[in-house]
Amino acid sequence: MTKHARIIEYIKKLEVGSKISVRQLANDLNVSEGTAYRAIKDAQLAGYVCTMPRIGTIRIEKKTDEAIEHLSFAEVVNIVEGSVMGGKSGLHKPLSKFLIGAMEVEEMHKFIEPESLLIVGNRKDAQILALKHGAAVLVTGGFDVDDEVIKLADDMGMPLLSSSYDTFTVATIINRAIYKRLVRKEVVRVKDAMVKEPDYLTIDATVGDWRNMYKTTQHSKFPVVDKNMKVCGIVTTNDISSLKDDVLIKDVMSKDPIVLTKDTPVAHAARLMGWEGIKLIPVVEDKRLVGILTRKDAIKALQHLSFQPQIGETADSIVMSRFSMSKTEDGVKLRGKTDPVMLNPYGVASSGALMTIIANAGFEAFRAQKRLETVLDSFTVYFSKPVQLEQEIEIEAKIIDIGRKSGKAEINLMHEEKLVAKAIISARVIDR
């Protein structure tokens, strides 16, 4: 095991809430401070530790996929630019919900739940009530807190936080952070679509081994790994055609293949497959093979996503929600009004917002007419006049050319039957 891997394993075994420092790790494991620093950064990326101003780096509970939309109290400290006054051992815990302490204390106990967060000002009775109910407390306005409250937070293991922001601002910041988490959770990742525990060949395998595996699985493409399960190649039918059984795979495989991590968005993987003309990409974790993503699985995941309701809004969804779509003989039509979110600083529809509508209209034309998933290859657009706020516009996208691997669409954006913009989109088809 390398020094780096040994440090990561050491960090994983630390008790949640433990403080970690570069010097401490270097001394405990007899490694250089540079090696310890890089390992801590990788552990932070992997979600095992969190670094906070004025507190340092602490071991936290790694989030599960189901809990990704929840912020930890440690993350709350960072986003509200706050400080921790007590209950540091509970910083790793997830925030289940938050409430504002604007009601009478007698009524407050009905709403406080374990691992929730009470946002409150200088109200000692409310702070104590929340902590006794297993909730964390965020004191706004930069008020000092009584020593009795700090001791109670330490005894209960629930964070007692402070921020100089007012209550409304803090609530807005936390709400926005939760909302962003929901949008991020919506993105389909490779881990949601990949084949786990895939078939593979080892570096010392032969063409005969490939043929035996093909007979067993009916698959023709396999990743090739070394003794440590590190991906070092891909072998396909084209690589071994007409070769004898005793030829070594390592001599004919395609070396240094493109690989993905489990958290790579499927849309990005599909684009890579389209650009590179490949149908299988190995998925790695710590450089070791953990799965494969096929082009068929990527398309299936993207098509499934297109039928799901959206929880959080992206820039594209905000703009596109202003328009209705209908199918035409050779494409689609979109109708709607320019909205304040689409305006530039000069009060007219921004070119970026209009290009978003144009591009999406082109993709929808391929999807509606040919049932094809595509990725953008090139985009040429010309503008002839501006569009003001609350103006009716119509976008018509027509497929003008379609082949097995690529297609083109022409898009016209009209206002009062006059041309506002014309575009040609060239897209690559993600085939199966």
Structure explained in plain terms:
The longest helix is centred in the middle third of the chain and has 20 residues. This protein is an alpha+beta fold and 432 residues long. About 3% of the residues have low confidence. It is built from 15 helices and 22 strands. It has 4 domains: 57 residues, Arc Repressor Mutant, subunit A; 121 residues, HprK N-terminal domain-like (Udp-n-acetylmuramoylalanyl-d-glutamate--2,6- Diaminopimelate Ligase, Chain: A, domain 1, 3-Layer(aba) Sandwich), CATH 3.40.1390.20; 113 residues, CBS-domain (Roll); 120 residues, Hotdog Thioesterase (Thiol Ester Dehydrase, Chain A, Roll), CATH 3.10.129. 35% of the residues lie in helices and 26% in strands. The protein has a 6-stranded antiparallel β-sheet with strand order 17-18-20-21-22-19. It is flat, with a radius of gyration of 28 Å.
Entry summary:
This is CBS domain-containing protein. This protein has a 6-stranded antiparallel sheet with strand order 17-18-20-21-22-19. It has helices spanning 3-13, 22-29, 33-45, 73-79, 105-108, 124-132, 147-156, 167-186, 190-193, 207-217, 237-240, 266-276, 295-306, 315-320, 351-370, and strands at residues 19-20, 49-52, 56-59, 83-86, 98-100, 117-120, 136-139, 160-162, 195-196, 201-202, 222-225, 231-235, 254-255, 260-261, 280-285, 288-294, 323-327, 331-337, 374-383, 392-402, 406-415, 418-429.
